[in-house]
Amino acid sequence: MQTLINSDTVVERAFRDGEYISPSTIDETTIVAAQESYIRPMTGDALYEALLGGAHAEFVEEYLAAPLALYVRYLLAPQLDILHGQAGTIQLRSDNFTAATEEAMQRSRRTLLKNARRLLRRASDYLEQHAGEFPDYDPMSNILNRCSIDGEFVQTF
Predict the structure, then answer these.
(1) Domain edges within the chain
(2) pLDDT tens, 76-111?
(3) Taking CA 33 as the corner, what is the angle to CA 29 and CA 39, rounded to the nearest 5 degrees?
C-alpha cells in the first residue's frame, strides 16, 4: 500500500510532547483509510494518484501531512483505549492514572476533527488558488467545492 505520510510523521504531527505513542502502533492500513476517507475526496482521483506517485511532495509536506496525521489520530483513538488479544478485549488500568470520561474523549475527538477539517480546507484553498501548478487537479472533483459542514449544518453547492 502506498501512503502519503508514514507513522513517524503521524506521531510528529498529531501527538504532543508527553503523549508518547510508538510509531509501530500506527499501521499502514489506518493511514490508507484516512487518505481514502478524507484526502482523496478533496484532491480527486487523478491528483491523488499523482501525489501517491511522488508528485508535488512539497504540497504534501506543507498542506496535507498535518491534516492527514490528525485524521489518522482520529481514526486510531478508539483503538488506543483497548487491547485485543488471544485472551479477548481488555482495557488497561493503573493506580497512577484515571481513564478519561466519555465526555472528555468525545470533546477531544471533536477537536481533532475540527482542526483536521480546517487544515484540509487550507489545502483545498491552496489548490484552488494555484490550480495551474496541479494539472491533475479538477476543481469539480473536490468535495469541499460541493459540500461544506459548518457545525451541525451541511451545505451543498
Answers:
(1) 7-156
(2) 988 877 777 787 887 766 666 777 788 988 898 999
(3) 135
